[in-house]
Amino acid sequence: MNSKSLNIIGKLLLIFLLLFFLLKSYIETNKLEQEHRITIGNVYDYYIPGRGGYDLYYNYYVNSKKYESIRTIYENPKKFANKRFFVMFYPPNPKNSKLLLLHGTVPEQIQQAPPEGWEGIPKVVKKKVDE
Which site from 13, 24, 73, 102 is most exposed, i.e. has the minimal number of CB atoms within 10 Å? Predict the structure, then answer.
């Protein structure tokens, strides 16, 4: 083979790999959105990679097994550090997860999630105080 053929094969291989990883990411995200459960995650650290955005490091438990993941954000990470947030995960592969920052922090009334997680974000029922 000449160098021109190798160059074309290399470019095709690169395009194939790029398409493969994009498709895989799309499928995993779609599965997560359609079939998920909810648990509680803890943001335990953050990192400023220098390329724009900040990486939040969080962990969560599913069936007593600990998982860790990263979410990139574009706002001050200090306001998320050492706080609890809901995490959406895909039950057949709990590593496939998403930190749900838009729902706010987990209320203090909720101490822990069931081992297999909730079907949706739990609603906190406030007890009426008799006067």
Answer: 102
